[in-house]
Amino acid sequence: MRFYVRKRHSTPAVIIVALIDVLIVLVIFLLVTTTFKQQSALRLQLPASAQAKKMGANENRTVVVSVNAKGMYFMDDLPVTSEQMQMKLKMAALQNPNVVVAINADTGAPWGKIVQVRDAAGAAKIKTLVAYTKEKQKP
Q1: Cα–Cα distance between 59 and 36 in angstroms, integer?
Q2: pTM of the model
């Protein structure tokens, strides 16, 4: 009688190094293809304009001053007083003489508050002011 000796089959091994390589490629792919959109925490209803440009069309450093409907000032999404705004604008002008001040004002913002932003920029010797608007809707 002849007995067959069964050969022991080794259990399949998972090669972890190859899986890690694939995982790293997937992470790099997701990082490269993900678009990062900077959104403000401050909700404003911007006025419409036929001459509206896309945000980020300026090469110089931009300091954004926002004015909400209640007339409060915001810089970097933090509330500031008129004096703090003037100090920050002066510091920005000292660091970069070509700094641009962007006024991001709600349609219901008091006009006097917007003029105060313009005056503070003038006192800081900032020459370029822009106003953020949204594109006018086509009929």
Answers
A1: 19
A2: 0.57
